[in-house]
Amino acid sequence: MKEKEREKVENYYFEILRKIANKRAEAGLSQIDLALKLGLTDSGYFKVEKGITKLDIQRFLSILYKLDISPKEFFEDFN
Length: 79
What we know:
This protein is mostly helical. Helix content is 70%, strand content 0%.
């Protein structure tokens, strides 16, 4: 992958993580609350949300499910 493409993909990735954090906060959940719903430790979830641990598609969909958001709704206003 070219450097410019890699940078764009990384920017989208971190935009997704920011949106997850925003949706979590809008739902009134702390990182610990969502971690417990997902069966993760609080530090494990923190690492996912901060991009330290890579977010795979299965975990992404689990997060959306716990936040009661469909993938379509999540990406509706995605830039």
